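Co-fold these.
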Amino acid sequence: MTSLQLAHISKSFSGTKALKDINLEMDAGKIFGLLGPNGAGKTTLIRIITNIIAADTGIILFDGKQVDYLHPLQFGYMPEERGLYKKMKVGEQLVYLAQLKGMSKAKAKSLIIAWLERFEIKNWWNKKVIELSKGMQQKIQFISTVVHQPKLIILDEPFSGLDPINSDLIKNEIFRLKENGATIIFSTHRMEQVEEICEDIALINKGEILLKGSVNALKQQFRQNEFELTFKGSVDFSQNGNINVITQSEDYCKVNLNEGFTAADFLGSLLNKQIEIKSFNECLPSIHDLFVAQVGDDDLKHHNSTNA
Amino acid sequence: MRKIALIVKREYLTRVRKPSFIITTLLAPFALAVLMLAQIYFLNYTGESQHIIVKDKSGLAWSKIKNSPAGDVNFIYSNSTFEALKKSYQEKNYEGILYIPLINAEQPEGIIYHSHDLMGIKTKLYVEGELNKALKDVRFKQAGIDQAILRNLEPNISINQGGRAKDKGGDTIIASAVGYIMAFVIYMVVLIYGTMVMRGVSEEKNNRIVEVIMSSAKPFQLMLGKIIGIGMVGLTQFALWIILGFLTVSVISLLFQGQLAELQNFAANPSLAPSNDVAKAAQSLDNLKSINWLPLLAAFVFYFLGGYFFYAAFFAAIGTAAGDDNEGSQSLSYLVTIPIIIAVLISTAIINSPQSSLAVWSSIIPFFSPIVMPARIAFGVPVWQIVTSVVCLILGFVLATWLAAKIYRVGILIYGKKITLRELAKWVLYKG
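Predicted complex below.
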């Protein structure tokens, strides 16, 4: 089921097009990765979704209904640049931020206490934010983002500055929120996290969507016909013109197969050789590879078109 | 509205609870008390009493120059020779010798004050005054003029206010003082609390909380909430100061009750006053009570709030120009402080001519009116001018807030860029 749908979203800043006709659909209860290099327009898009700025054109549909903007209670936004009032106490600050979202004071208080207990930091209630370490502040920021039980959660680089233990803690919370039905937009540069966490992604560059779809489908779409093999014995692939060796060592090789020459053909060709196959699997491109290749191509295209 | 109220509450409470707020609010009236007491002390300070030997060869001043009433200058007449006195005056602890040679009243030259130390200015003026009086008497006598008749002829003029202004219970000195104090207080308020708004805005921008807030509240709500919240901090501080100030003044009045009662007595019966000046001071004190305070207070509160809101909007807009180092807003803040300072300069100038065209125009233009109008309101201002001024200030405030909101909305999200005045102007035209 589609949760959030963006249609024909455009935005210019004093003549520069920051977003050009963005169309995106995000499914309810999934984690959506919003990827792109710095300055691609991710933050602008997020600010439009969160109604911090208005789009020049386009509409937003939420749960199938057209909205001018999302009600603050419906979403939680954690910006990349974290921000809390440094001299305000943790409890008071969380209650204030939840009240601004539109919650009642009593309800906000009980939910915040539950979250603080969950993170085992209940004794921080009366601490000033400035007294906490960066990682601790991040936990408070995370609570402020999700405490009002939003249907849509937007996290911009949620793991930056976190140690592995706290990183896992937040990651598990993200999965738990997803299980409870929240749609999560996850914006990051860290590609290994994207593969681990996201189901669908969109890759943005220079205000345009380069790629979108599920992580698995995209990997299939951009498969390079590359395989890796570990084995015992000796083998020489150079006679077969359909097999191009990328790397080879004593017991490992990575090959690229020509169009039409399938994995089965490759394995068949090995059966005649005196080797023992230990493992065989396809090398799908990583999201990192896709990112680098797609953004690189796109930049080259822009570069050429501006030079032409 | 609920969101603005929440923001106002936060802005207000975080500031009012600060130790620095509590300390300045409580200490200021005591500082005032200390200043008042110091003033009373120094006004009555006469220094050590001085003893001067008078050697009068001419006999013109003999027994005519009198000790000062405060007792700080005392004269001792001596028949010894000047030379003998020169040798002995220090041993006898006299400050110096006033030597009057054999002179006549027409050419009183050659009078000498002989001493090791220079004469104090106050003493010198006093001694000269006494000598002049003595010589005047001699000269009058020589010219055949009767002193008693002369004294009766001396006029004692004081202009009383007539016309419309009389009904207002006007007194020029009081009006000037009250007007100037109100103008000065509003000037302080606009500057202190306006700067507080500016710093609050740049602080929110720099610690990036603003993006979190703006996903919950509109920039306009955040800006207005901040302005109102800080304005209420100002009102609270002033209310406390007025109460505490009133208490301290009352305590001091009680301590110096005698002197005040005496003054009040002189106001009722000016003829009892030791001098004309004292009678006038007593009259002024009496006039304080006759002033119609209610319209003054209403004007003060209106221009206090109007001036604050008008200027706070500009300060808020400029706060958004702050870079990470606050430099941007620091340099732009002069744009706002200069008109405020000009307004103070105008209000000092117009106290001498409260109905001049400068006074009329500057009390209508919203950039100056919050400071200039209170300065001249005690002199009596025509109704049409007050109405125009009030309407212009309200319009000015609405316009300033609208303009500031446009700048604020854009500027608060722009980082890592030096923000110039041109940039600010451009933001006003942005849509969405």
